[in-house]
């Protein structure tokens, strides 16, 4: 082992770390790349949302598990988009997935849009509000009947409206 070995190994490690870190940096959300019915500038979104809400809804971040009071909310009502008040999910479709995020087995008809998400080295289905493009969470194939789907959502993206 010599200095050249350590220098070349260090360079490869550094380049690898930089490319991996690129997978975790903020990227433009679906709202920034597609047209939506409700649009706002970044400054307008930042004025109406907290820092965490902005990071999740506009930059496709994720809130900490078990941090949302909506995770354990089972009252009758509707879950709306925090960004534009579009009704997204009905309380009768909510269930406890044990993941620490509010989970539903289906959305309301025509409420959400989806796209492929290849971040974090896997293929997932991202879901967002179809009207304003706000990031909601992801859809997985491990949910209950009748759909077999788990819409795993960030509570900060939602507002609960009691029935």
Task: Kindly describe this structure.
- With 163 residues, the protein is an alpha+beta fold.
- It has one domain: Peptide methionine sulfoxide reductase (Metal Binding Protein, Guanine Nucleotide Exchange Factor, Chain A, Beta Complex).
- 25% of the residues lie in helices and 25% in strands.
- The protein contains 4 helices and 9 strands; from the N terminus they run ααααβββββββββ.
- The protein has helices at residues 3-22, 30-33, 42-48, 51-59, and strands at residues 77-81, 87-90, 94-95, 103-104, 112-117, 124-129, 135-140, 150-153, 158-162.
- The strands form 2 sheets. Strands 3-4-8-7-6-5 form a 6-stranded antiparallel beta sheet. Strands 2-1-9 form a 3-stranded antiparallel beta sheet, with no helix packed on it.
- Residues 3-31 have low confidence and may be disordered.
């Amino acid at each position: 082992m010599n200095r050249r070995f350590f220098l070349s190994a260090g360079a490869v490690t550094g380049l690898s770390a930089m490319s991996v870190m690129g997978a975790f940096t903020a990227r433009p959300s679906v709202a920034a790349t597609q047209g939506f019915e409700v649009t706002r500038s970044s400054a307008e979104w930042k004025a109406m949302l907290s820092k965490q809400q902005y990071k999740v809804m506009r930059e496709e971040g994720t809130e900490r598990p078990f941090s949302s009071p909506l995770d354990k909310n089972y009252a009758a009502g509707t879950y709306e988009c925090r960004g534009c008040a579009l009704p997204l999910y009905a309380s009768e479709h909510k269930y406890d997935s044990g993941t620490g995020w509010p989970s539903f087995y289906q959305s309301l008809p025509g409420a959400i849009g989806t796209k492929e998400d290849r971040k974090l080295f896997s293929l997932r289905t991202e879901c967002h509000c179809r009207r304003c493009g706000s990031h909601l969470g992801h859809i997985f194939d491990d949910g209950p009947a009748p759909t077999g789907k788990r819409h795993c959502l960030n509570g900060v993206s939602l507002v609960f409206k009691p029935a």
